[in-house]
Amino acid sequence: MNSKLQEALKKANAEVEKSGITDPELKKIAFSKAVDFYLGSETPQSTIAPRIPKGASDKSDDFWTSLHDSTGIEINKLKDVYSVKDKQILLVISSVPGDSKADKQRNLAALILLAYQEGLNYEWAPSSLLAEAANHSKLYDTSKFAKNIVQSDWFRTEGVRRGLKYKLSGPGVSEAKNTLSVVIS
Predict the structure, then answer these.
(1) pTM for this predicted structure
(2) N- to C-terminal Cα distance for the chain?
(3) For residue 126, what is the enclosing H or E element?
(4) How far apart are CA 130 and CA 172, in angstroms?
(5) 146 and 166 in contact (C-beta within 8 Å)?
(6) Is the dihedral of CA 155, 165, 148, 141 positive or negative?
(7) What domains can you pick out in the chain, each with its CATH number?
(8) In terms of Cα–Cα distance, which of 164, 95, 108, 168 is closest to 140?
(9) What does each of the 185 residues of the chain score in pLDDT, given as a tens digit?
(10) Residue 120 contacts residue 55 (beta carbons within 8 Å)
C-alpha cells in the first residue's frame, strides 16, 4: 500500500472517530467520503461552488459562439447579460424582468439554464447553481423559490433535495430566449 493511501486512511479514520458517529452505515459513508477527500478526489461539500460541469466546454469562446448560434443575438450584447469568470457563468444585469418576485425567479432560472444548455451544451444544472444566482440577485426565498420554478411548465426536474437538477423544457427555451431579448433591448 502506498504512503499516500495509508496517510489518507489514517486521517479519515481519525476524522470519523472524532465525529462521534455511532450508526455503522453512516460511519462507512463518512469514512468513504473522508478517504476520497484526503486522496484529493473530492472537495468538501461546503466549498463546492457552481462551476461549469465536467464534460461541458470550459472555453469561453465556444460558450459565446454556441449561445450566439442558438439565440441569434450578437456576442457583444450577450456579454452585457452574461459573464464567464473563473469557469463560472454569471448574470451581469442590474435587474431581472418580471411583474412579481415569482416571475423574476422564473426568468432568472430560465436565463441561467439557457446559458448552460445552449452555451455549454449541458442539459442539466444543479439546483444549488440556481439558488446561488437567485441569492446573488436578491431573489432567493427558501420557502418558495423551488415551488415557483416547479409550478411552471418551463422547467423539468430530476433527482431530489440536494441532488435536484433542472433543465429547460421546449416552452422554457422559447420563454428564456424571449426574456433574453427583453433584457438586451
Answers:
(1) 0.65
(2) 62
(3) strand 125-126
(4) 15
(5) no
(6) negative
(7) 3-47 (no CATH), 60-184 (1.10.10.10)
(8) 108
(9) 577 778 878 888 888 787 777 777 667 777 777 777 777 643 333 333 344 444 444 455 688 898 899 899 999 999 999 888 766 678 888 888 999 888 888 998 999 999 988 888 888 888 888 888 888 777 777 667 778 787 788 989 888 777 788 999 989 999 999 999 999 88
(10) no
* Cβ neighbourhood burial of 119 (10 Å; 0-12, 13-18, 19+): buried
Q: Which amino acid does the sequence have at 34?
A: A
For residues 134 and 148, the answer to whether their CB atoms sit within 8 Å is no
Angle of helix 170-184 versus helix 101-114 axis, rounded to 10: 100
Instruction: Answer whether 168's CB lies under 8 Å from 113's CB.
Output: yes
Helix (H) or strand (E) segment spanning residue 152: none
**Contacts (Cβ under 8 Å, ≥6 apart) of 22:** none
What's the length of the chain? 185
Whole-angstrom Cα distance, residue 72 to residue 174? 13
**All cell numbers assigned to 106:** 422564473
Residue with cell 411552471: 152
